[in-house]
Amino acid sequence: MEIFKRAISATLALLLLTKMCQGLPPETKALCNYTITIETMCTKGADTSNKISLRFGDMKFNDVLIHHVNSKHMRQVDPLEPAVYLDEAPKKPFQECTVDEFQVTGLCVEEPICYMYLKLNGDDDWRPGVADVRMSQASHLSSTDFYFRRYLPRNVWYGSDMCRGEVTPFGIKQERKVFSEKAILKSSP
């Protein structure tokens, strides 16, 4: 009988601990490293010196928000062979006909990354091409390619959400994604 009581107590304690951990604020959840690759198109005037913000996440709404991704610039890579680095010294990101790589840290996703949004803050235009997110710790959670290939509107989130969709006679119906301020994580410099 005593063993039975201890087993029930241990089970209840585990359930209580699990419930408590589910309500933890985002700052106390695990952090992961991500490598983001963003191509800038070769169109005249496609480059920008504006600040770019980025957000991505998974179906469970694990949202990673990076303000001013420009400051996380790692290197430029060869567009034809991404494994070849053009220069190890960081250059100004988002120039015409370049592919830039950024290293960021954010909340860990639990499922494959299925949405990405970019936000252009400033006065000049920018025309990104293809972007992707690779997760260092779990490559199976990395994203597929996100295609932009047009000038971004200014001061609004613009992107692609491939998480959920219902096929209707009128096209793919997407659930509306509403971002809350509680998901914001200050990224490390």
UniProtKB/TrEMBL annotation:
Which keywords appear in this protein's UniProt record, sorted alphabetically? Answer: Signal
Pfam families hit by this protein: ATS3 (PF06232)
Q: Where is the signal peptide?
A: 1-23
What name does this protein carry?
A: Uncharacterized protein
Q: Which organism is it from?
A: Kingdonia uniflora
Q: Lineage, please?
A: Eukaryota, Viridiplantae, Streptophyta, Embryophyta, Tracheophyta
